[in-house]
Every structure is written in C-alpha cells, then in structure tokens.
Amino acid sequence: MSENKKQVILGAYLGGVNHHTAWWHPDAGSQIDFSSFEHTARTAERGRFDFFFLAEGLILRERAGQIFDQDIIGRPDTFTVLASLAAVTEHLGLAGTINATFNEPYELARRFASLDHLSGGRAAWNVVTSFDAFTGQNFRRGGYLDPADRYVRAEETLNAVRTLWDSWAGDEPLADKAGGRFVSDPDTGDFTVRGEQFDIEGTFTVPRSPQGRPVVLQAGVSPQGRQFAAANADAIFSPYGKLPEAADFYRDIKSRAVAAGRDADDIKILPSASFVLGDTPAEAAEKHREVVHGQVTGQTALILLEQIWNRDLSGYDPDGPVPAVDPDPDAPPIIHGRAFVHQDRFATAQRLREVGEAKKLSLREVVIDQFERGPLIGTPEQVAAQIDDFVQQDGSDGFILGSHLVPTGLDEFVDRVVPLLQDRGVLRAEYAEPSTLRGNLGLPVPHRHLEART
C-alpha cells in the first residue's frame, strides 16, 4: 500500500426501510431473509471492506396515522443478524445501530461484548438516540425524554457501557475523573455507576474485548450531536457527500476531537453513498436516471417534502413547482418514524424553492436533485477516482456504500471498482492476520483507564 496516500475505509450497508431500495426490480431479493444479509456481508469481505453496517427501525413509519405503503417494512433483531454473520465471515467488522434511549447499559455492554468475542474483535456499536413519544410507545417508558436530554442520556449510557467493558481491563482499578461516578475493579469485575440517568452496581460477566473495546460509531449534525461524536465516537457518519461542505464538516469534527483531548486521526469521517456503474459515462448516467426516477415517485417526493413542511401536501402536483406555502412547525407531526435532519424548516423550504426556480425544475425534480446522498456515477475508473480524490482532499476517510439492488448490487462494485482502488494503493489487497475492526480502521486500542467525561 502507498505510504503517501490516505487509505480508503469502506463500509457496506444493506438497504431496508426507505425509498432507496429498488424493490420493484426483477432481480431484487428480500430485506429480511438471512441469505440477503449473508450475501452482502460475504461480498463486502471479498472486496476487503472494513465493516458491514445495519441500521435500525424500532417502529414502522407512518404518515397521517397510516403505515407508509412505499417503504420496505420489517427489520429483524440486529444482534441476531450480526451474531449469525460472525459465523460466516472472518475479517469483516459487524456494526449495529442500537438505541441508547430505550436500552439499559448492562444489556448493551453484555451484548456487544459477547458479539466482540464471538467475532474475534469485530463488533461496533452505532449509538443513536430517540426522544419522540411515537417511537417510545413500543417501550415501557414511552417518549419521556425532552429532546435536549437525549444526548445527556446517551453520554451517560456510553460512559456506563465503557465502565463495564473496562471492568476486566488489567491490573489497576478504573475510575474516571468525573468524581468517581463510573468505577470498575478489574480484579473482581465489579462496577459502580452513579449518575443522573443510572444508579447501578454489580459484576460484569464478559471478559475484556479482543480489540480493547468494541468500536463506537455515531451520527450528528447539530452542534450538540457534533460535540458528542467528537468527544466519544471512533467514527462518525457524515451527511455530506459533496465538496466543499464535506471538507468543512471534516475539519470541524477533527478540530472538536482535538479540543476534547484526542488525536485527529482517532476519529474517522464516513458519509454514505450510492453508486451506479456503466461501461461509458453516458451509459452510467442513463442507468442512474432510470434508478433515481424509480426511487423517487411523485408520492415519495411529496412525502419527503411533507417532513420539512409538516403539512399535508398531497394536493400539490409533483410535476409542478415547489409549494409557496411556508412550513408549519407548530402543527402535530404529519410524518412519524423518520429522522429529521433539517435544522431550519423555513430556510430549507426557501432553498428548495430557489433551486427549483434557478434550475427550472419541478417539485419531484428538486427532490431528486437535492435529496440524493452523494451518488457515485460513472465508469469503474471514474468511480474509483471519485472515491480516491474525495478522501485525499479530506472530504472523508472513506465511504459507507449501499446499492439500490438487494442483495446482489454490491457485487458489481467489488468486481469492477475494488481492483482499481487496490491498484491505486489506497485499499488493502489482504486483511492483516490476525485482524480486528480497530486494527483494520487504524484506531488505537483504548487505554485501560477511562478518559475524563465531563
């Protein structure tokens, strides 16, 4: 591998509960059969990817009280799927999205530590939060959290989980610098957690992780989310797939990590991306047009805008202009179960109108133009160059790739693009032996003393 170029990190995800999956395609398979998960994971490992990623769906999405009929629905339990994949892979990281709001620290620590041992050091936890009563209705406590408190609980949950993971750390007792609120004794495995969210003590049952600790992933766009991720995560999912905003986000997260007392290289930035390949640029562009117009129907375009406007837009023509009416943020939510990523509804609505007017695009065309997440389109040579250039320009440290076609879509990327990335010297030809996810990502093994969490 080249010593002068950054190495590209690659994750693979299997599309599920969203409109990106081309479920109508004649070659499309199931989103819940184990064979689909196995095929995608084995293909990613064949391509020397770093990890396989599972999103989470705790409740079926609704619009105006009705289940979305344009979404793929159904989501098996994350731990069950990843534990099964550990048996059919050898090197691939196994990353699961598990909610910090509706799970307890002991359960989280035990399950991820068990997965880490079963896989030989390949487990990762994508920490997410919830505050809405809609999601909470599936759980005993309901939506009791104020939105401002979700990261308070998430940070305390993560600190508590790490305390348990570190309770078998070595030959010295562990105590953080926050007044001894998170304490563990490696001689006995005993732990004590005293905080606003938890008051627990006991004995942890799982020995130290083969990679020191499971890897922690997080996504955050708001200032609070960015700060939490920069201080706590090993990798963060970026929503930016285009320069220069991606490079701005990259610099911001890295600088926040340094301010939190970390090395900038100890946190990786990873946007998600789709891809469409063709033998010529024109063929790739035409294939992309067919795919995206199949994904974003008129109904889908209206629903995506309804999340921003918080209004019933079903009376608008998808082939007409973006609605001139303003959003209504104070009305009861019309869309439930979809993460809201737009910080300012009014500014976002105005920007979409301006894009439509400037480019002379219809409502549906504006959604296609503005909502697609960093597509990689072109010949295999062009896509390999796009990935390499983006990473070398510090737009990210790599990509999490998904295909519109489940489960065989990733095969084309592995067969046609991966060899070109390897020729460029930015992707491993073989995994290290033995390999852990931390080792593959170039992350340090955590010090056995807990970091300060203030």
Question: Would you summarize the structure shown here?
Answer:
With 454 residues, this protein is an alpha/beta fold. It contains 15 helices and 17 strands.
Q: What is the oligomeric state here?
A: single chain
What is the 3D form? globular
Q: How many whole angstroms does the radius of gyration measure?
A: 22 Å
Strand content: 15-25%
Going by CATH, what is the homologous superfamily of the largest domain? Answer: Luciferase-like domain
How many DSSP H or I helices? 15
CATH fold title of the largest domain: TIM Barrel
Query: Helix proportion of residues, in percent?
Result: 25-40%
Given as residue ranges, the uncertain stretches (5+ residues, pLDDT < 50) are: 171-179, 448-454
- Give the overall average pLDDT: 88
Binding site for FMN: 97, 151, 222
EC number: 1.14.-.-
GO molecular function: monooxygenase activity; oxidoreductase activity, acting on paired donors, with incorporation or reduction of molecular oxygen
Domain Luciferase-like: 30-393
Give an overview of the whole structure:
An eight-stranded parallel beta barrel has the order 1-2-5-6-11-12-13-17, surrounded by six helices. A four-stranded antiparallel sheet has the order 7-8-9-10, with helices on one face. It has a three-stranded antiparallel sheet with strand order 4-3-15. The chain has 454 residues and is of the alpha/beta class. Helix 10 crosses helix 11 (363-371). Strand 12 (235-238), helix 7 (245-259) and strand 13 (268-273) form a beta-alpha-beta unit. The chain is built from 15 helices and 17 strands. It starts with 8 loop residues before the first strand and ends in a 13-residue tail after the last helix. Helices cover 36% and strands 15% of the residues. It folds into two domains: 9-278 and 379-441, Alpha-Beta Barrel (TIM Barrel), CATH 3.20.20; 282-371, no CATH class.
